[in-house]
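Re: [ENG-882] Designed sequences occasionally contain unexpected residues at chain ends

Forwarding the minimal case from QA. Structure tokens:
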């Protein structure tokens, strides 16, 4: 019980801040996780441009469909 009290005392300011403005870094952590997964799957890219293109493709919600399909 003493350890819980010490932890709460140590993080009291952050707890109050979260109660006032409930903002987390979950979105940033999720994006970072996706980027790390892309990096792991590729086993390396030839250059930074291709790595950036892969990140934009997978995280930007792009698809392979043409902009104006022929009728």
């Amino acid at each position: 019980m003493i350890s819980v009290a010490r932890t709460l005392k140590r993080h009291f300011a952050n707890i109050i801040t979260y109660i006032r403005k409930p903002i987390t870094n979950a979105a940033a952590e999720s994006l970072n996780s996706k980027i790390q997964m892309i990096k792991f799957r590729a086993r390396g890219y030839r250059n930074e441009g291709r790595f950036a293109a892969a990140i934009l493709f997978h995280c930007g919600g792009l698809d392979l469909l043409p902009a104006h399909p022929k009728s």
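QA comment: On inspection the terminal residues look reasonable. Residues 27 and 68 are 32 Å apart (CA to CA). Proposing we downgrade this to a documentation issue.
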